[in-house]
UniProtKB/TrEMBL annotation:
Region listing for Disordered, in residue ranges: 141-172
rRNA processing as UniProt keyword: no
One Pfam family recorded for the sequence: Ig_3
Polar residues composition-biased segments: 141-150
Record's protein name: Ig-like domain-containing protein
InterPro entries (UniProt xref): Ig-like_dom, Ig-like_dom_sf, Ig-like_fold, Ig_sub2, VSIG1
Annotated ranges, domain Ig-like: 1-76
């Protein structure tokens, strides 16, 4: 389809040189004019930009003063290996594209579901806070031990006593 097709009918034995005419035969073998350019001297029929409507049976008549002869040619649309390979490659690429789209959509849905699950867990889980309450913060006059509670669990702390340069006790 869409290409130039040349049909040639030639007689090397015709004397005097024959004149050539081309006709198209429809399904009933009725002669129809051809769509294209004919050269009656060399017997060629040129069909430019051929479409499916030009496929069919063509008849060439060679005639001179001595007589006339005819021959018929069937013009078919056959796919070449290149067209078949192109169709197969196109189909495979189309299938690959569909598979990639499905994988992307599946991944996106799983990612969104995971994100929604994490948000639900975060909303359902109470925020934990650690409260430290000091009971009886030690002073210079008090004991060097203090009781600390963390989340209701008592903890003991020890302070270190040392002497400063003036000889007085200090806590660290």
């Amino acid at each position: 389809s869409g290409h130039l097709v040349t049909l040639t009918c030639h007689s090397v034995q015709g004397s005097p040189t024959p004149s050539y005419t081309w006709t198209r035969l429809d399904q009933d073998k009725t002669k129809k004019p051809v769509l294209g350019y004919t050269d009656p001297k060399i017997g060629s029929l040129y069909i430019t930009n051929i479409s499916q409507f030009e496929f069919g049976e063509y008849q060439c008549s060679a005639s001179n003063d001595v007589g006339a002869e005819t021959c018929t040619v069937e013009l078919n649309h056959e796919l070449g290996d290149g067209a078949i390979a192109g169709a197969v490659i196109g189909a495979l690429l189309g299938a690959l594209l569909i598979i990639l789209i499905v994988l992307y959509m599946t991944h996106s849905m799983k990612k969104q579901k995971y994100k929604d699950t994490k948000e639900t867990e975060m909303q359902a889980k109470p925020k934990s806070s650690t409260t430290v309450a000091y009971e009886g913060v030690p002073t210079m006059e008090s004991s060097h031990q203090a009781s600390v509670t963390s989340g209701g669990v008592p903890m003991a702390t020890h302070s270190h006593v040392y002497a400063d340069p003036d000889g007085e006790e200090a806590e660290a």
